[in-house]
Write a structure and sequence with these properties.
Elements: H1 6-21, H2 33-39, E1 43-47, E2 50-55, H3 57-63, E3 69-74, E4 90-95, E5 100-105, H4 111-124, E6 129-135, H5 139-147
Length: 152
């Protein structure tokens, strides 16, 4: 959908979504992975001229064990978060600002249980939350895991 102005791009995406909803199979190719993620229910990943994998976005995420992320935003008057790694299986913790952090759960973590444990710990620590949000890996992250970041 390159070459379209934003309004036309939106219209084309809406038409494709409606056709898919009506049960019509649509095959399209794009390097704009956010469009693919928006529209497609099944995705084929091509790399180095070959089909590397096919599945739903969730299936592709699970096959490569890419962990979900949790965004935590504290109120400005909150005390800082301490030692979440004791509570849940974390891959990384990135402090974006004093109030905002992104936690990547390990790929084999039980997401529901991990979210509950994190929330309980934040409450126990007396943190004041402004936002607590589960972020799924983008199709771009999944693609880069499959092709190893190499150009195709």
């Amino acid at each position: 959908m390159t070459g379209l102005d934003p309004a036309s791009r939106y219209q084309v995406k809406q038409i494709l979504k409606q056709l898919a909803k009506d049960g019509i199979t649509i095959l399209f190719s794009s390097h704009i992975l956010s469009d693919v993620q928006d529209i497609a229910s099944r995705i084929g990943i091509l790399g180095r001229g070959k089909i590397m994998n096919v599945g739903t976005p969730t299936e592709l995420q699970e096959r490569f064990r890419i962990g979900d992320e949790v965004e935590i935003v504290l109120a400005t008057d909150s005390k800082p978060i301490e030692h979440l790694e004791r509570v849940v299986s974390l891959e990384t913790v990135t402090q974006q600002t004093p109030e905002r952090m992104i936690i990547r759960l390990s790929g084999n973590a039980n997401v529901d249980e991990s979210l509950s444990q994190i929330l309980r710990e934040l409450i126990t620590q007396g943190c004041h939350l402004r936002n607590f949000n589960l972020l799924k890996p983008s199709l771009e992250e999944i693609y880069l895991k499959y092709v190893g970041g190499a150009s195709t």
